[in-house]
Amino acid sequence: MAHVREGRGPTLTVVGGGVIGLGCALAAADAGWRVTVLTDPDSPRAADVAGGMLGSLGEGHPGEDALLEITADSVRRWPELLARLGDPAIAAADDSLFVGVAAADVAFLSQLARFVWSKSVDESVLRQVTGREIRELEPALGSRLVGGYLASGEGAVDNRALLAALETTLARAGGVVVPRRVDSLAGLEGDRILVAAGLGSSKLVAGVDLYAAKGEILRLSANAWSVPGPRHVVRARVGDRMVYLVPRRGGIVVGATQYEPIDADDRAPRVSGVADLLADALEVMPGLRTYDLAEAGVGMRPCTPDGLPIVRELDDRVIVAAGHGRNGIVLAPWTSHRVVEILGKAAAE
């Protein structure tokens, strides 16, 4: 049985201790709910393997207008969440550079800026930059970069510092995190149940159609010989692929691949994926050769057929928040807000 803490107020049991589950739990606790989070200690969290970018533009692609809209809404909510967590170590960067290695790459970015990005940001947020300006902003980037865009406010967080801060802040708000695997919702205590178990959500509730996308991310650590890392998030178009470099204290995160896994146990880094990431990252920042390869991480992202997260009430007790794909971290505030809206509506009825 779940151990919902004693006291006044309605009770909420959250199944899933990833960034969505913890973010919703904290928001619910702040709204007066008594919250218990059940998290499987043996199940990897998608947010443990992430770049942590908070911008909407990097996730804005043709045909994804609905996703861009909710992502932009969530980005506007991030400053409030960061203030609530109160840990400056979470922030990793404030702005992003979108860069291209060749003229065709910049043309691709320009098409996004004109027809997609302009729908969610005003002109003051996005500024076109030349290759010379890119190197003035980030001297360690390669001389072959010919142009791109500077996106003000398109920052990033340290994903693992974020998860730790969410747990700490939730505990201070009276929430409880219990290590426990949940195979069925039957028998769970709580006035309401929130299923935020990533890919496992489809096994717990009917009608939640999710599939896994495998993604690799590299963590590079600086040594005494390493060139200084970037201050911005660097998102580069290299041919037909995108690669990003995200600063971390003492290193850089490089990502990310995305493709269909062989099966649910396909969690080993694939040589081709790691090789592509390294080749593209070195094209953008040759000085990465001076870093140490600290980790080649693999995450399984819970995706939906239409690319949009599932955040809805299933019945008078169960809510689901799942299927965020590559956008779990950036969409955490929007999802938390939506879940609290659902909880508030039900409490008022």
UniProtKB/TrEMBL annotation:
Top-rank taxon: Bacteria
Catalyzed reactions: a D-alpha-amino acid + O2 + H2O = a 2-oxocarboxylate + H2O2 + NH4(+)
Encoding gene (name): thiO
Family per similarity comment: Belongs to the DAMOX/DASOX family.
Name this protein carries in UniProt: D-amino-acid oxidase
Domain FAD dependent oxidoreductase: 13-341
Gene Ontology MF: a single term: D-amino-acid oxidase activity
InterPro entries, sorted: DAO, FAD-dep_OxRdtase, FAD/NAD-bd_sf
A matching Pfam family: DAO
Assigned keywords, A-Z: FAD, Flavoprotein, Oxidoreductase
Enzyme class: oxidoreductase
GO biological process, one term: D-amino acid catabolic process
Gene Ontology cellular-component terms listed: cytoplasm
Organism of derivation: Gordonia amarae NBRC 15530
Cofactor: FAD
EC number(s) on file: 1.4.3.3
